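Subject: mismatched residue count in predicted assembly?

I count 622 residues in my input, but I want to confirm that the predicted structure covers every chain. Input:
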Amino acid sequence: MDRGLLIISTICFLAAVARTGVALRAGVFRPGGFNFLAIGLGFVFQTAFLSIRGHALGRCPLTNLFEVFIFLAWSVALIYMLVGPTYRLSLMGAFTAPLVVLLQGFALTAPIDVRHSVKMPANSALEFHASVSLIAYGTFALACIAGVMYLLQERQLKTHHLHSIFYHLPPLTDLFAAITRLLWCGFILYTIGIVSGFFTGRPLPRIQVVAAVGVWLLYAAILQGRYLRRIGPKRVAALCIIGFSAALTLLWGITFSAQTHSVP
Amino acid sequence: MNLFCVGLSHHTANVETRERFAGGAGAESSLRKTGCVEALVLATCNRVEVYGASEKRVSTDEIAHCLLQNREVSDRGHSEALPFYRYEAEQCVQHLFRVASGLDSMVVGETEILGQTKKAYQFARTSGAVGPCLHRLFQRAFRVAKQVRTHTEITRGSVSVGSVAVDLAQKIFGELGGCSVLILGAGETSERTARVLISRGVTDLRVSNRSNDRAQELAQRVGGKSVQFDQWPQQCSKIDILITSTSSEAPLLYPANLGPLLANRIDRPLFIIDIAVPRDVDPAVNEMEGVYLYDIDALRSVAEQSLAVRRQQIASAEAIIAEHVADFVEKISRELSRASRITEHPPVADSSLRATQL
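Triage response: the counts match. Full output below for your records.
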């Protein structure tokens, strides 16, 4: 039943992707209400899934890689809903939806929804750590999407070949402001996530701590470079993509190792 | 009721001819005397058209005569040889929808015509020249134009070099109110571009020219301040947009001299519009991070791309229009048929009549 909700949610996001794809092929990309509606519906079904799963588990649904991916997809949609309106909601949705489809599609098709035979006790500190960290990842994902939009816009301006989507992208300076804000927001949440990890009452695997601090340092370096005006906007945008890829790899590693050791 | 459109446009007549028939304040009342129950004159710089509804056929000559009467009585004799076109019933509906949507304009997809059509309608309505027939026709035309603009890319991008430059500036900086602009070379094209930028909110304008007097003159005209010609390179570290149009034989700006000036503004883009021939800016400057260089060819190419996209969209726009024409004609025919039954007149819903009567 709960997977059914997730499938519907994925279809909603897929509809937004398909609509954008068709519009881009026809050269008439025009962000409109459809994308917003599709993503909004997708988000509602995601939330319903996480709620049902959470009630069934009696805790925050972050017990395996499948749930982690869905929670991450939910975070991306949530942050998009919160910040999207400021930076052309429907257009950012055109970029957000594919990422959510990718995350949910993978979660649904890969055999990663492993149920633990023993019901795990709730640990509020651990759940707080995990959920805040995942929302931080969601924010980094949005920064990554804004980075893609920036690079796309920048490339078209440089080459003088303007595609239909160019006319619907926000101005470069606005996009860069969005990237900076998302980076700060994600960085603060991620810092809270890392610090709270030390108060879960569980020993933290050294490799995970090192990798998490590595990602934290990467984002700190991007923000520092931005603050000191050592890194140009184009490189900041590119680093957002690299940073999120690193964060995603780390997340995979953490969840995978937690699952193989089966001690979440 | 016959619905018709008689007119001349940039397709059929030159500007002098169009001027002579631009109608006048009393054109609509003259048209009513000829037998038009309803009449509306749409007169713009590219077209003069009369949209009318009448019980009996009003000839093209009579309409031309009315338009002339209100301008120059002495020109009456020329009306017969003039290239007026005439659309009746369904064709008239289609023509108006195409006009309002910008498909019949000189620059395909221009939006000014919609405003002009609305104004003409408003004027005719206030003077009582528009009745239920033209009211419904024009209201539908406004709806169609809006739909065409929303569902196609017919109005996308700018098609003139000056507007392209300003649009690009907005794509880089967003609001232009806080942007600083340096005009290098007091040429006519620079001035035109500067004026478009001013119209979009730019207030900080600097002008530099080899002849300081000319720089001061232009600065005065556009409300900016002049900068000595030997000081303009230093300005590059402070400005956001540079418009160059000097008559220099060699490039004035190249990576080696621009690089150090931009060192402290890494997160602030610089948009350079080089409209000089030969060019003032080395094309290699475009490779520098944060610098966007557009020369006259690049601007033209963007304008042409927009125009090409607009042309590609004509088919989609025509499809929307065709749908509305069919629907509008059907609705009107149905209503006329109902009205005829009530007044015990023969029904007009017959398909043979529909082509000529609405």
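Chain A has one domain: 2-112+121-260. Marking this ticket as 'not a bug'.
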